[in-house]
Amino acid sequence: MNDSKSIAIHAKNTAFNSIDADSSTLINISKNIWNNPESGFREYRSSKLVSDYLNNLGLQPQVEIALTGVVAKVKSSKPGPHIAIMGELDSLIVPEHRKADPATGAAHVCGHNIQVGNLLAAAVGLSTPEVIDNLCGSISFMAVPAEEYIEIEYREQLRQSGKLEFLAGKQEFIRLGLLDDVDIALLTHASPTNSQTLMPGTSHNGMIAKKVRFRGRSAHAGGAPHLGVNALNAANLAMQGIALLRETFKDEDHVRVHPIITRGGAAVSSVPANVTMEMFIRAATITAMKDAENKVDRALKGAAMTIGAEVEISTSPGYMPSLFNPELSKIYDRSVTEIIGNDATGRMPHRTSSTDMGDVSMLIPAMQSYAGGASGRTHSDEFEITDWNLNVIDAGKALASTAIDLLADDGLEAKKIIENFKHSLSIPEYLETLRGFRRTELWNGN
Ligand SMILES: [Zn+2]
Q1: CA–CA separation, 446 vs 441, rounded Å?
Q2: pLDDT at 4
Q3: Are residues 112 and 214 in the same domain?
């Protein structure tokens, strides 16, 4: 065995011992967050648990980044690549879940609470002096707010008061410069497959969000509908138009358009004059996202024209498509095999959901792994964490071990990945693209 290999093995064993020694605290923090869910940009309590733990490690974290984010960094004495290990702080809102907050309906039905646990596990392992001193470069531990794209109105208010520009946590982290000098990013998400697996993901759809308002003219719905302009009929027709365009979406683009009507009318006796919709337009590439978006806009305007209504279309940037780094995933597989065994690896196929980890994956090599220790449908009342040890301890060890492999031996593995990475966008180009999606258009169909 050569020298650098034995140094890496020693660093891993030392990191694993530190994680094991603190395992009950790490699992308790994850359970504490599970029991006290907070949705995006409101995670003050969870954020405090993170900063308290990092403070106890002597890491002096930066707090209140993008309102609730926390970042701590450990540095080796040798220069080298900078790795970010991330965990998401936010819950969803599903009031039917058994652990939902009675006041807010918040519930951790995507299991982000375990991400905080495995992030802190990686932090306790990697910040052990015997570990970091044997590596090069630096590692940042980032607890990031608001991955779920929900409560748009609340976030728009934060935006208008200047507290945010973008509506998702990692987008804000990028805007605020937290990723400017980061070379590689890692994250582990829960997955309801009820299996002893830690599987890197492949890719995700990106997403554009739209708020739509059809304005018509009210009139007596029974006595004089001919005097009105029915905004609900315009919305219905728009949904038909979108449905009829589905045959033009290519299979490989994985397009998903899912509209809802958020206000359908005020009183049944009056022709609806004010009807609002929200929709996500998802696809696997930016080109396909824009193509589908153009078709959706045509359907909205066409419907307004047919009915003689007016339509206001407000478009916001959602998330970029995710494309996770295959070389990085292979390095992670090695750690998973060492920690759990051969059967624990694999690949999560393309997912048609979206995440702001996609935004990160456009800029730097990124990996999002899925820990199989959960059950039930995600984002539903059924979702449960079934294996805390796998999600927090093993997943934390796999992240720490991957960081060690990347930064041992003068960062040879990390440097190879960074060199071969072809980024889709630079950070300024990314910010410009994101800002370019935001606009409001008024179309008068009468
Ligand atoms: Zn999630």
Answers
A1: 16
A2: 83
A3: no
Q: Which residues surround ligand 1, an ion (CB under 5 A)?
A: 110
State residue 3's pLDDT score.
83
Cβ-contact 212, 300 below 8 angstroms: yes
pTM of the model: 0.94
**36 CB neighbour count, 10 Å cutoff:** 17
Structure tokens at 302: 């066409």
Q: 297 near 309, Cβ under 8 Å?
A: no
Q: For residue 283, what pLDDT is reported?
A: 98
Q: How many angstroms does the Cα of residue 357 sit away from the middle of ligand 1?
A: 10
Outline where DSSP puts E strands in 264-387: 274-283, 310-319, 322-323, 366-371, 374-375, 384-385
Token couple for 64? 């209140």
Task: Mark whether 265 and 170 lie in a shared domain.
Answer: no
Kindly report, residue by residue over 178-193, the tens digit of the pLDDT: 999 999 999 999 999 9
Tens of pLDDT, residue by residue over 95-114, are 999 999 999 999 999 999 99
Residue 337 lies in a domain: yes
How far is ligand 1, taken at its centre, from the CA of residue 405, in Å? 26
Count the neighbouring beta carbons within 10 Å of the beta carbon of residue 151. 20
Please give the distance, rounded to the nearest whole angstrom, from the Cα atom of residue 238 to the centre of ligand 1. 30
Cα torsion through 188, 189, 192, 195, rounded to 10: 0
Segment (H or E) for 257? strand 256-263
* Pair (197, 238) in one structural domain: no
- Spans in the chain with pLDDT lower than 70: 1-2
For residue 300, what are the domain limits? Answer: 206-318+433-444
157 within a domain of the structure (yes/no):
yes
Q: Please state, in angstroms and rounded to a whole number, the distance separating the CA atoms of residues 180 and 177.
A: 5
Calculate how far, in angstroms, residue 32's C-alpha sits from the geometric centre of ligand 1.
18
Ligand 1 centroid – CA 223 distance (Å) = 50
129 alpha carbon – ligand 1 mean position (Å): 32
Q: Are residues 167 and 274 both part of a single domain?
A: no
349 and 360 inside one domain: yes
The answer on 210 and 198 residing in a single domain is no
Residue 417 in any domain: the answer is: no
CATH number at residue 283: 3.30.70.360
Backbone angles phi, psi at 25, to 5 degrees: -65, -45
Residues 108 and 251 in one domain: no
d(CA 213, CA 235): 9
